């Protein structure tokens, strides 16, 4: 069985349709709040400052990230809210999503150094994409995280 490739859209907050915004918030809530059983304020007032990368399979949103330019969230540009729908993870779409997000960060932010706040259990996944651990681990919303940076 061949994996169907994702189709990506990159949009600023103001360019998102009402249906796109609803779908991305629903996906984030489904994974970060319900699946991970983590009560936290996902709608944090920062989406309007972000660039949104939406990954579609058969016109259904199954993958998403948001990108911040340098100085907005961290000193460096950053990619966050990295999410792939549970039913689609077996296809390794996380790699496609992150590659599209790295490319979008380089294109739109005009930078090649990116910082992320990664869930610790995904360290190897991000290492495979060129990210290296910086600093000590920490808890974010009760989940172990580690800072990671990707430099050219």
* Average pLDDT level: 93
Please identify, by name, the CATH architecture of the domain at 7-110.
Answer: 3-Layer(aba) Sandwich
The oligomeric state of the chains shown is single chain
Helix content: 25-40%
Biggest sheet architecture: 7 strands, mixed
Shape: globular
Unreliable parts: none
For this structure, the CATH topology of the domain at 7-110 is: Aminopeptidase
Give the neighbour order of strands across the main sheet: 1-2-3-4-5-7-6
* Class computed from helices, strands and strand pairing: alpha+beta
CATH evolutionary superfamily of the domain at 7-110: Gcn5-related N-acetyltransferase (GNAT)
Walk me through the structure.
The protein has 152 residues and is of the alpha+beta class. The protein has a domain at 7-110: Aminopeptidase (3-Layer(aba) Sandwich), CATH 3.40.630. The chain has helices at 18-35, 93-109, 123-127; strands at 7-12, 51-57, 60-68, 77-84, 114-119, 132-140, 143-150. The protein has a 7-stranded mixed beta sheet with strand order 1-2-3-4-5-7-6, with helices on both faces. The model has no long low-confidence stretch (mean pLDDT 93).
């Amino acid at each position: 069985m061949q994996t169907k490739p994702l189709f990506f859209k990159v949009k600023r907050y103001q360019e998102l349709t009402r249906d796109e915004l609803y779908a991305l918030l629903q996906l984030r809530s489904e994974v970060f709040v319900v699946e991970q059983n983590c009560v936290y304020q996902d709608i944090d007032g920062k989406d309007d400052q972000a660039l949104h990368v939406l990954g579609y399979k058969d016109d259904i949103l199954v993958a998403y990230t948001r990108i911040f330019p340098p100085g907005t969230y961290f000193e460096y540009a950053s990619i966050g809210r990295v999410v792939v729908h549970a039913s689609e993870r077996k296809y390794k779409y996380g790699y496609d999503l992150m590659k599209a997000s790295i490319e979008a960060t380089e294109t739109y932010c005009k930078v090649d150094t990116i910082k992320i706040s990664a869930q610790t259990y995904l360290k190897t996944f991000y290492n495979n994409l060129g990210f290296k651990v910086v600093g000590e681990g920490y808890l974010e919303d009760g989940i172990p995280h580690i800072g990671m940076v990707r430099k050219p």
